[in-house]
Design goal:
Layout (H helix, E strand, L loop, with lengths): L4 H4 L10 H14 L9 H8 L3 H13 L3 E4 L5 E4 L8 H8 L21 H19 L2 H9 L9 E4 L2 E4 L9
Antiparallel strand pairs: 1-2, 3-4
Helix pairs in contact: 2-4, 2-5, 2-7, 3-4, 5-6
């Protein structure tokens, strides 16, 4: 029987992206909806997305190191995307944001005696490869456009008007 989202809805997630990766993707999608020449502080991004600023700062440092965001110090400083949203794949963000500590995972079936060749190990590696392939196909622009169309909910947007930031109404919303 083919699984559908409805039949999977009550199941716990079996493969979940690391928290740092989820924060990196969320923050980058939000930045992708902002004017490209404006820098946003960690506190601004964290407040908009409801994320902890200290942890988000660590995530942004990793993204900066990998060239996915630009940074500017001082007044009017902060972060912005280093490339267009069409050029940044979710896999780029996942690889850049996640810690490599613990990358060599124990086998789920035989944690102390698996040599990496058991069926359980192979199944988990196969599922992980499918996730990598899916992340490699999607760009920030894909998620931004999906959010604007109502797929994941509206993204807060800002624009520059007379040199000042101004909040815009959501593009798509289920709220009255």
């Amino acid at each position: 029987m083919a699984e559908t989202l409805e039949t999977l809805a009550g199941l716990p997630p079996l493969i979940e992206l690391p928290l740092a990766t989820r924060y990196a993707i969320g923050a980058a999608v939000w930045l992708s909806g902002q004017p490209p020449n404006v820098f946003f502080s960690i506190r601004e991004v964290a407040k908009e997305l409801g994320l902890p600023p200290d942890f988000l700062a660590k995530v942004f440092r990793r993204l900066l190191h990998k060239g996915l965001v630009d940074a500017r110090r001082g007044p009017g400083g902060g972060y912005r995307l280093a490339r267009s949203p069409e050029q940044i794949r979710l896999l780029d963000l996942a690889v850049s944001s996640a810690s490599t500590a613990g990358a060599e995972r124990d086998c789920v079936l035989y944690p102390h005696r698996c040599n990496g060749n058991c069926l359980a190990h192979a199944a988990v590696l196969s599922a992980a490869e499918m996730v990598r392939e899916a992340l490699a196909r999607l760009t920030l622009a894909d998620l931004r456009d999906d959010a604007r169309a109502g797929g994941a909910g509206p993204l807060p947007e800002t624009t520059e008007a007379d040199g000042a930031r101004k909040e815009l109404a959501p593009i798509a919303s289920n709220e009255p």
